[in-house]
Amino acid sequence: MKILIVGGGNMGKTYADSFIDNYSVSKDDLYILEKLEEKVEYFKSIGFQNVFFKPDSYISEMDLIILAIKPQDTSIVFPLIADYITENQVVLSIMAGVKMVNIEQALPKAKKIIRAMPNLPAQVGMGMTGFTSAKSVSKEEVFMVHNLLNTTGKCLYFDDESKLDAVTAISGSGPAYVYFFMDSMIETAMQMGFSKVQAELLVEQTFLGAVHLQNTSKLTCKEWISRVASKGGTTEAALKKFTELDLAKGIGEGLHDAHKRAVELGK
User: Fold this and answer.
1) Residues 66, 189: one domain?
2) pLDDT tens digits for 12-39?
3) Are residues 127 and 244 in the same domain?
4) H helices within 82-137, ranges in order?
């Protein structure tokens, strides 16, 4: 299988590294198309042989083409590659907000389109990706892409493309929500007299341990909360304040706003 990654940014490099590290494809069969010459030279310097600055007939030889460019760059990149796309190729887009119908219109020869929404932790193999596909994509091709996406973490397939707007709001933007909560805890810990290094260690290890513990058990988050929070204790005092502030409602409203914005950006 030959794979072309269009775009050598953070996610493009993430996929390139993950596919190689997991033996999904050899370096001989992995191609990268990058618009910046300095990045072309960078990829070559770290061992990628098939790195190109301009589109050409090699694109037509690919089995899978991954569109890892910024949505605002589509008006420049799509016209350059459109003539080289063939109907038999699978085209995987990881561009936020760009619907499959828009890709079909810009790349008329592309018939087998898959759209995915990864998130930032994919860079360390801990990502969460939601994806969907056009009806013309076979089950075998969906399975092939599923395996590739799994090299960067975990993924979920949805029949309904509109679900990706919700994926964007939950897992796509989700890391920022976690960092927001962590940052608030770190700042408060420093107010309590800890150094920045101490505060970061206290909070980061707490999050890491809590998530790992939840992942290795069958208990729900609510059940874990009840195990941590003893009656009249410190945890209960904090939870009481969160309830008074209606924090859960605020989080829910924020996620709904993110979902609404994702829908708007896709129009």
Assistant:
1) no
2) 999 999 999 999 999 999 999 998 889 9
3) no
4) 100-106
Provide the domain limits for residue 255.
Answer: 174-265
Residue 213: pLDDT band with limits 50, 70, 90: very high
Instruction: Please state, as a whole number, how many other Cβ atoms lie within 10 Å of the Cβ of residue 52.
Output: 16
CB 216 within 8 A of CB 227: no
The helix, strand and coil proportions of the chain, stated in percent and rounded to the nearest 5, come to 60, 15, 30
pTM of the entire predicted model: 0.89
Three-state DSSP state, 86: coil
144 and 200 housed in the same domain: no
User: By the 8 A CB rule, do 19 and 1 touch?
Assistant: no
CB 166 within 8 A of CB 259: yes
Would residue 118 count as lying in a domain? Answer: yes
Give 224's contacts (C-beta < 8 A, 6+ positions apart).
210, 213, 214, 217
Number of domains the chain is built from = 2
Q: Report the distance separating Cα 158 and Cα 133, nearest Å.
A: 8
